[in-house]
Specification:
There is one protein chain. By secondary structure, this protein is of the alpha+beta class. The chain has six helices and nine strands, in the order ββαααβββαβαββαβ. The chain has a nine-stranded mixed β-sheet with strand order 7-8-6-5-4-3-2-1-9, sandwiched between helices. Helix 4 packs across helix 5. The chain is globular, with a radius of gyration of 17 Å. The protein starts with 6 loop residues before the first strand and ends with a strand.
Length: 222
């Protein structure tokens, strides 16, 4: 068991939990239904690479191994109890860096509802808290406007541009790099996201007791 894992993170109708072998059927159905929506952003292997396509079981097995080793946090996103996507913290580096990368995808049916920004904010707050990381980075293709809106809502700063950074959809693709550090969100990224949404919403804000709170449930290792 690694620091801050396994864990369930919740806020209102959104629940994030570790990915499981039991998710296989719904994961496959969701990915198949969203093939056109997600295909252009999926990682691929270069033609000279020896990597072979992985089965769902192999993918989950590798993720769980990496999670136990403290190198990855693979979450499933559930909204109103329905599987809607994934958020994965990967490439966790300890030592003097205390750094990681984060990636995500969501069912097109649920895009634009604020689910993904909240999910990413929950995960980053967890990384800056129990996991003990200092910096989180997100790499996004310049053409991926939906993903760019996520980091915009979260107020993440663009820190660089990486030509031919990752092999995506059959070729080496440029990426814009966004990052955030713990010092930038002393009150938490979920709190900052809600403040932004409140300023945009002209309706009177709800009293504190009526606002969904972020909750954590630590799990025993399966």
């Amino acid at each position: 068991m690694s620091a801050g894992w396994p864990v369930v993170l919740e806020s209102g109708r959104l629940r994030l939990r570790p990915i499981s072998h039991k998710d296989r059927d719904v994961w496959r159905r969701t990915r198949q239904a969203n093939a056109a929506w997600l295909g252009r952003w999926d990682a691929t292997a270069p033609s000279r690479s020896h990597s072979q396509p992985r089965s769902y079981s192999a993918m989950v097995r590798q993720m769980r191994t990496e999670a136990r080793a403290g190198r990855q946090l693979p979450f499933v996103m559930e909204y109103d109890g329905r599987f809607v996507g994934q958020v994965t913290v990967s490439n966790i580096v300890r030592g003097s860096a205390q750094f990681a990368s984060i990636g995500y995808w969501v069912d097109e049916t649920y895009a634009g509802r604020g689910i993904t920004p909240l999910a990413v904010a929950l995960v980053i707050d967890h990384c800056f808290g129990p996991v003990g990381l200092h910096r989180i980075e997100v790499a996004i293709r310049p053409e991926n406007t939906s993903s760019l809106r996520v980091v915009e809502k979260l107020g993440m700063n663009e820190v660089g541009y990486a030509p031919r950074f990752l092999h995506i959809d059959g070729d080496w693709r440029d990426h814009r790099i966004f990052a955030i550090t713990r010092e930038e969100v002393p009150m938490g990224l979920v709190g900052r996201l809600r403040d932004v949404e409140t300023r945009k919403d002209p309706r009177p804000s709800q009293p504190p007791s009526g606002r969904p709170s972020a909750q954590k449930k630590h799990l025993s290792q399966e």
